[in-house]
Amino acid sequence: PIFLGATAGLRLVEPVQREVTLMRIRDMLHTSDFIFQDKWARVISGEEEGIYDWLTINYMKNGGALPDRLSPTYGALDLGGASTQISFSSRGRRLLRSKEAFPLRIDDSNYLLYSHSFLHYGVDEARAKHSRHIAATNKSNSNNPCYPVGYVDEITNLNGSSNWDECLLSVSQLFDPANCFE
């Protein structure tokens, strides 16, 4: 069997184009030698993406098994291209409200996980958003202070000026927490 869980890159695509893309992928998977059903190829939520991150890191760090209920676990922070996810176990803690908790049961182990996704805050999306912001606010000055001197962005034609203080200020203006939730 083969399953496909598309992530933030496809979550950003317009719904009609997203479905066309998934239909093409499903058609291709039906012609493969894999066992496949249409419902096995879908766009997963950002929170699901974070849960899979958590499962993967804890499986790998625990020698190919998930930690038992008494073992410590690792949190996961995934900086992707279109989004960033954070996830961790809150075992024994009362940090989570019921709407934030994701109960997970695997075999005889129960985990209470927190997972949150920040759509548009992956590295590619943040870089593009920052470049658009610089281009819009500095019409007379075509420099991006975050790019190195001598670098020219092919999309925005912004030149690098390597100014750390200006870079920090311009990037900090982009991070309005009210705008980063899915």
Descriptive overview:
- This protein has helices at 8-11, 15-30, 46-61, 123-137, 164-172; strands spanning 4-6, 41-43, 76-79, 83-89, 101-106, 109-119, 143-144, 159-160.
- By secondary structure, it is an alpha/beta fold.
- It has a four-stranded antiparallel beta sheet, covered by helices on one side.
- β3 and β4 form a beta hairpin.
- It is globular.
Overall 3D form: globular
Major beta-sheet overview: 4 strands, antiparallel
> What is the N-to-C order of secondary-structure elements (H for helix, E for strand)?
EHHEHEEEEHEEH
The side-by-side strand order for the widest beta sheet comes to 3-4-6-5
Please report which band the strand proportion falls in: under 5%, 5-15%, 15-25%, 25-35%, 35-45% or over 45%: 15-25%
Mean pLDDT, to the nearest integer, reads 87
Structural class: alpha/beta
Q: Level of helix content? A: 25-40%
Number of strands: 8
Model regions low in confidence, pLDDT < 50 over at least 5 residues = none
Radius of gyration of CA atoms, rounded to a whole number: 21 Å
The separation of the N and C termini measures 30 Å
| Alpha plus pi helix count | 5
Structure summarized in a few sentences:
The radius of gyration is 21 Å and the shape is globular. With 182 residues, it is α/β, with parallel strands linked by helices. Strand 3 (76-79) and strand 4 (83-89) form a beta hairpin.
